[in-house]
Amino acid sequence: MRGAPALLWFRQDLRLSDNPALAAAVERRSPVIPVFVWAPEEEGDWPPGTALRRLAAESGASAVFWNRR
């Protein structure tokens, strides 16, 4: 594996088999950083993905993958 890592954002879909986002991230042949954000007190009207900006910057990730809800 080489290259910048990718973040794999597990939202409400935690399956490992038959997961299109996981398959796409692995296909890049770069490290994959799995991410699950647990923040029930923040559910409501907030822009999705905001919590990943800092993680992407700190990890040097060049891509983020997730499945549609």
Describe the structure in your own words.
The structure is a single chain. This protein is an alpha/beta fold. The protein has one domain. The protein is built from two helices and three strands. Strands 2-1-3 form a three-stranded parallel β-sheet, covered by helices on one side. The mean pLDDT is 84.
Unreliable spans? none
The description of the largest β-sheet is:
3 strands, parallel
Radius of gyration (CA) equals: 12 Å
Oligomer: single chain
Distance N to C terminus:
29 Å
Task: Kindly summarize this structure in a few lines.
The protein has helices at residues 20-27, 52-59, and strands at 6-9, 32-35, 63-65.
Please describe the topology of this protein.
Blueprint (H helix, E strand, L loop, with lengths): L5 E4 L10 H8 L4 E4 L16 H8 L3 E3 L4
Parallel strand pairs: 1-2, 1-3
Keywords, separated by commas or semicolons:
69 residues; three-stranded parallel β-sheet; 2 helices; alpha/beta; flat
